[in-house]
Amino acid sequence: MKAFIAILVLLLSFPAQAGTWGVGQFDNDEALDRSSDWAEAESTLVVQRALEAIKGSTYIEAPEAMTALVAAEVVAAAAGYPSPDLPDDLNSWIARQSALELIALIPSAKSAISRIVSPEGSELYELWADADLSEWLVAVAELSDRLAAAPSSIER
Question: pTM of whole model > 0.70?
Answer without folding.
Answer: yes
